[in-house]
Amino acid sequence: MKIIMIGAGGAVGKTAYDELVQRHEVIAVGRNSGDIQADIEDMDSIRAMYAKVGQFDALVSAVGHGHFGPVMEMTSELFMQGINHKVLPQVNLVLEGVAHINDGGSFTLTSGVLNRDPIRGGSCAAAANGALDGFVLSAAVDMPRGIRINSVSPEVLEVSREQYDGFFRGHNHVSNEAVGLAYSKSVEGCLTGQVFTVDHG
Ligand SMILES: NC(=O)c1ccc[n+]([C@@H]2O[C@H](COP(=O)([O-])OP(=O)(O)OC[C@H]3O[C@@H](n4cnc5c(N)ncnc54)[C@H](OP(=O)(O)O)[C@@H]3O)[C@@H](O)[C@H]2O)c1
């Protein structure tokens, strides 16, 4: 398969890259890193990326961030960070990508644990995750030509433990292998409209 992987150089993206590159042609994409540079917050940049890559079989996106902070201190602008930096860029990859993906291809987006196991200050990220998980559930019904769409929703990665130290008290940390297998199932498996949670392993 020819697979476009947005954020392949990141903590989560690397798990998918390392798993899938063993068997497929994987084109890594980042704003500054990767085989191709694109900013998925910019629709023109998304279009230019698809024009450069041509037809493909699968797209994996492991990108995005939101605001962290208590609800009582949140403004609507801060809340929109989750929408603008995590939800819309990934949804736009699908909206633009449907015209370029081969029959039977797949889209895999990345959400995260916070909409099923909240932490203090995590409501913006939780809402973004919920939006993405809801999108794939319903978009799967509309997908033409046997195209599948799923999300992967990992717990905090072991490799990200230090970065999030103190924020996820009591949460499990998951291995690169466990997260990579979820991307494998989404890309190489048969299911659609699924949220593949990775809470253990
Ligand atoms: N880390 C965790 O434990 C964890 C757990 C659950 C869910 N998640 C979710 O997984 C996603 C990725 O997190 P991460 O920790 O892997 O982040 P990360 O380590 O910061 O990696 C982000 C990757 O995405 C690329 N990127 C960022 N913005 C981009 C843009 N606008 N256009 C194109 N590429 C872009 C970056 O490359 P460049 O710098 O070259 O742009 C980098 O390769 C996020 O949505 C996060 O919420 C993470």
Query: Multimeric state of these chains?
Result: single chain
Question: What's the rounded overall pLDDT mean?
Answer: 98
Computed over alpha carbons, the radius of gyration is 16 Å
State the end-to-end distance: 27 Å
Q: Could you list the spans in which at least 5 consecutive residues all have pLDDT below 50?
A: none
Strand content: 15-25%
Number of H- or I-type helical stretches: 5
Spatially, the strands of the biggest sheet line up as 3-2-1-4-5-6-9
Short description:
With 201 residues, this protein is an alpha/beta fold. It has five helices and nine strands. The strands form two sheets. Strands 3-2-1-4-5-6-9 form a seven-stranded parallel β-sheet, with helices on both faces. Strands 7-8 form a two-stranded parallel sheet.
General description of the model:
α2 runs parallel beside α3 (76-97). The chain has five helices and nine strands, in the order βαββαβαβαβββαβ. It has 201 residues and is of the alpha/beta class. The protein is 38% helix and 22% strand. It binds NADP nicotinamide-adenine-dinucleotide phosphate. NADP nicotinamide-adenine-dinucleotide phosphate binds at residues 6-7, 9-13, 30-33, 38-41, 62-64, 86, 89, 110, 112-113, 154, 156-157, 160.
